[in-house]
Give the backbone structure.
Amino acid sequence: MFVFHQKKIQMQTIQGDGFTVSVVKSGRRKTTALKIKNGEVSIHIPKRQSIEIARHFVQQKTPWIQQKLQHQAQQSLPEKDFKEGESFLFLGKEYQLQLVPAERPTTLIKTAQTIQIHGRVNILSKTAIRAALITWYKQQAELYLRSQTAFLTTKTGLSPRSITVKTYKARWGSCRMNGDIQYNWKLMLARPDIIDYVIIHELCHLQQHNHSALFWQLVDTHCPNFKTARLWLKNNGASLEI
Ligand SMILES: [Zn+2]
């Protein structure tokens, strides 16, 4: 959906599908150009050109803009150091990593603000800390995704044969013809409403093993905000990584 916002003094913007475009008018410019820099989208048009034409241009170029934004988001992902104070996402919330020296096997404890790693943290390598975190995320995924799927099964009446948590590079879940559902543990970094969408998506595949109009209709019945969640995942999915 495209809504055009016109502010009185501020720069004009065009609302795109999951992004906002700033309109820059120039007297010298003769052609229309789109620019995407640091995740910001702008359209540069001749002074007398109507905003309607710019809006159409943005609409036509939407897949290209979304692809560019996604690519830039991936490129700008900072490498983690697994150091004290670094932020890690859990259910869409940021937690600070705390390294607590202790003479015991590596143990993870989540508090209201932190994820603590207790153990011989002074000699643990970056790789070892990352591995400990991943093990913990997978355990949390087993618990959370199972109970949330059970809850959504009650709501939708769609019941999987089994649930497995896996590591995937480029997918959030999958559903086999026999009714087995697999989830990516990295979902645990996302907000609960995003996770619910993925669960409902896979549950709906139990009835529709495709991405037909009927399938999306079923998703819409059980998850009316699915378009927002789907777009969020498309644009931000790459950031759900440790
Ligand atoms: Zn699907």
Q: What stands out?
A: The longest strand covers residues 93-101. The first helix runs from residue 51 to 60.
